[in-house]
Amino acid sequence: MDFSDLLLANSSCEGGECELLAFNFTLGDSSDDFASRQISAEQSLVFKYGRLFYAYFTPAIIVIGLCGNSLSFNVFISRSMRGLSASQYLAALSISDILVLVVYVFLDWTTRGLPFLPRNIKLDILAMNGVCHMFLYFSYSLRFISVWLIVAFTIERYIGVCLPLKKIKICSRAYARRTILTYTAVGMVISLYKPILSGVYAKEEVGVKVCTFNPEYEFVSNVLDAVFGLAITLVPFLIIAVLNVIMVHKLRMRSKRNKNGMRVHCVVKENKLRLEMTLILIGLSTCFIALNLPYFAVWCFSRYQTLNGSSNSLADLVTTRGVLYITRTIFYINYCSNFFLYSITGACFRKELLDLFRYHRLLKRRSFEQETRKYSPILKRPSTESSL
Predict the structure, then answer these.
(1) Residue 326 binned pLDDT confidence (cut-offs 50, 70, 90)
(2) Tens of pLDDT along 133-160?
(3) In angstroms, how far is CA 214 from the centroid of its own chain?
(4) Which uninterrupted H or E stretch holds 211?
(5) How far apart are CA 18 and CA 11, in angstroms?
(6) Helix (H) or strand (E) holding 200
(7) Could you give the maximum distance between any two Cα atoms of the chain, in Å?
């Protein structure tokens, strides 16, 4: 898990005491020091309601995300959409988001969201060595792939809008597939460090086993986590923001130059799908930055507090962790919002989505008619015999 996750141990303790003990071993405090730093119930309200927000809203995000991404994938591989290189990126993004929701978001929620619901169900799935290593590896690699597919889509649209001479070579299905495979391979390779430096370790202070870094490699693990965190947050932010600003400026300048209504109509008619993909990109990348930025800011602040634990009160740490739960939940919306963005910004996407539903309805009707024809002779036979 990333360093904000170290404090979120799952154990048999009751309520807030368990969480406060988790803070204790995270910061390396002695039990005497911890006892002198107990916080009141009022001070932990942000943490309590932040975790409740996470526990109740995350399942809805998972369900909506699985349905929305499945529909999006089917639309982008449809006959009229799959010819575009941009559709290759968005179809791959849909698959990646589905896997992130199942492997990362769902398993993460069963560990620290499910126990906080009224029935207090506890599943120590991640407290097993094999499961812990697989969870860490795939959650890290899939998140990297998901983020960088958006970057790849942004670069593809930037070239299509701003560098038309290179469009034929780079904005092709074959190039898109190679790019997707490259990012997938890179994500799977650079995420290998996490399971190697991690495992299930007992925390004697609270008497539980936690899926976390190997204490012998704490410094190395923290440094690599920091680099990985920047690779899936700050670096993509900057690339996406800069390229989007350039594209919007280019489109505005082009619109001013083409004041002839007929000429603009012809351009739009010819490149309707590509222009809609550019609009989808702008909406997708803007939403990505807006949903990621709060979590990234709180994550950085939380990391700073963890490294300077002695200079922070426990009440401040609890409050930060509560806000971290809220921003984490908002961050998870990334994996379920794309379908709605596609539907709002893409007229062709909406048309293909309606055609998809009509096609399935037609298949059901044909299946029903075939079944009716199959059994109709059997149904007619008794009436024929009775007439004789």
Answers:
(1) very high
(2) 999 999 999 999 999 999 999 999 899 8
(3) 26
(4) strand 208-213
(5) 7
(6) strand 198-203
(7) 99
**What would the pLDDT profile of 219-231 be if each residue is shown by its tens digit?**
898 899 989 989 9
- Which residues neighbour 67 within 8 Å (Cβ) at sequence distance 6 or greater? 339
Two structure tokens written together for 251: 């489109």
pTM over 0.90: no
Using CB atoms within 10 A of its CB, is residue 43 exposed (0-12), middle (13-18) or buried (19+)?
A: middle
Site of tokens 């599943």:
123
CATH superfamily of this structure's domain 3-365 = Rhodopsin 7-helix transmembrane proteins (1.20.1070.10)
Q: How many residues does this entry show for the chain?
A: 388
- Mean residue pLDDT across the chain: 79
Structure tokens at 290: 């807006």
Sign of CA dihedral 125, 114, 136, 46: negative
Beta bridge partners of 202: 209
Residues 199 and 184: their CA atoms lie apart, in Å, by 24
pLDDT tens profile 261-277: 544 444 444 467 777 88
Do 126 and 75 form a contact (C-beta atoms < 8 A)? no
Burial 98-118 (b: 16+ CB within 10 A, else e): bbbbebbbbbbbbbbbbbbee
